[in-house]
Design a protein that fits this description.
Oligomer: heterodimer
Order of helices and strands of chain B: EEEEEEEEEEEE
Radius of gyration of chain A: 13 Å
Radius of gyration of chain B: 14 Å
Number of strands of chain A: 11
Largest sheet of chain B: 6 strands, mixed
Order of helices and strands of chain A: EEEEEEEEEEE
Number of helices of chain B: 0
Strand content of chain A: over 45%
Number of strands of chain B: 12
Structural class of chain A: mainly beta
Distance between the termini of chain A: 31 Å
Chain lengths: 114, 114
């Protein structure tokens, strides 16, 4: 257990719909990163939030968006869902965005797009 | 942009055998290096990390890794594996400056037979 929680655990949506995934960071952590892990692959970085500001973004289209709240919890929103968005979405929190900081991962949300 | 290669996709060992999983990265600057493990049904957990100092890093559960800068490598080793080491292992890198998102390799599935 890392203290990072995610909800929901599983989600099934259809193409074109929108989805919101939630993450609560570990106590004392102000940085949250989101990753997408497709089946059989390593996690791919989506974006990172540091003190409520986006602090970097991976190679994902604008329909992937996020928020970080004053308590440092975070949301990942995906609009206009596509079949390829089916994946495990991982949230990770860290104490700060500094070098060497360990990112602690939550259990993930399994999204299936039909 | 950085990238990570894990050469062994699936490794099968008998208990007590020695383990070495390869990891090479591509990046021109200073990096921080990580090995994460994902046990069946569990979330990603940090095994060990390197960000400076002694290039031989010891982690949890008897794992160690050696950073060889000239070879851009960070191989994971364990002298004697146990059935409970059955899991997926991911090598990851983050640059020492700029965006500190993790770039993961595609993972190595380790199966330890009793």
């Amino acid at each position: 257990e890392t203290g990072v929680t995610q909800s929901p655990t599983h989600l099934i949506k259809t193409r074109g719909q929108q989805v919101t995934l939630r993450c609560s960071s570990q106590s004392g952590h102000n940085t949250v990163s989101w990753y997408q892990q497709a089946l059989g692959q390593g996690p791919q970085f989506i974006f990172q939030y540091y003190r409520e500001e986006e602090n970097g973004r991976g190679n994902f289209p604008p329909r992937f968006s996020g928020l970080q709240f004053p308590n440092y919890s975070s949301e990942l929103n995906v609009n206009a869902l596509e079949l390829d968005d089916s994946a495990l979405y991982l949230c990770a929190s860290s104490r700060s965005g500094r070098a060497g900081d360990t990112q602690y991962f939550g259990p993930g949300t399994r999204l299936t797009v039909l | 942009a950085q990238s990570v290669s894990q050469h062994n996709h699936h490794v099968i060992l008998s208990e007590a055998a020695s383990l070495e999983l390869g990891c090479n990265y591509s990046y021109g600057g200073t990096v921080n290096l990580f090995w994460y493990v994902q046990y069946p049904g569990q979330h990603l957990q940090l095994l060990l990390k390197y960000f400076s100092g002694d290039p031989l890093v010891k982690g949890i559960k008897g794992f160690e890794a050696e950073f060889i800068k000239s070879k851009f490598s960070f191989n994971l080793r364990k002298p004697s594996v146990q059935w409970s080491d059955t899991a997926e292992y991911f090598c990851a890198v983050t640059p020492d400056t700029g965006r500190r998102a993790l770039t993961f390799g595609s993972g190595t599935r380790l199966q330890v037979q009793p």
